[in-house]
Amino acid sequence: VGAGVTTAAAQQLSKWIQEGHRALVQDAAASLFGFSVAPLDLAPDARVTIKKDPKARDVWLLADVVDLSLPSPTAGWCVTGHPTAKPLLTLSVTIPGQPAPPLEASLCAIVKLGKGEVIFCNGQLNTQEGDGAVLYRNLEKYLATFPGAEEGVAGKK
Hints:
16% helix, alpha+beta
């Protein structure tokens, strides 16, 4: 199955999520939920831009998240595709002097799975500068609630 997870464990986790819970994945385990992922392997002179995806304006886990960066050297994983996931944070990479098209990927994305959700988020965002720590705090609160929770849960809009 991948990422050291047995088929039986993956099925149990998927069932739990479908019942209305949320799960966070940050590496190749995301492929268990249909994400295509790749490790970030960026050239030292690469220009990296991280921004909120325009379709993600209504997602409260991005509240107060404006400025994000990756540490150097870059680490972690990114989402390169999913048939139905909603990208939350997109990563654009260009390398000076190279005519190749820029890499477009997501550092954070969310997908519905039954009554629940699977959130992919790069675990290596810079928490010393910018809003990386804010995002991770929001993510912790977001994971503590679940779609089946009653309205009015703290932090839910």
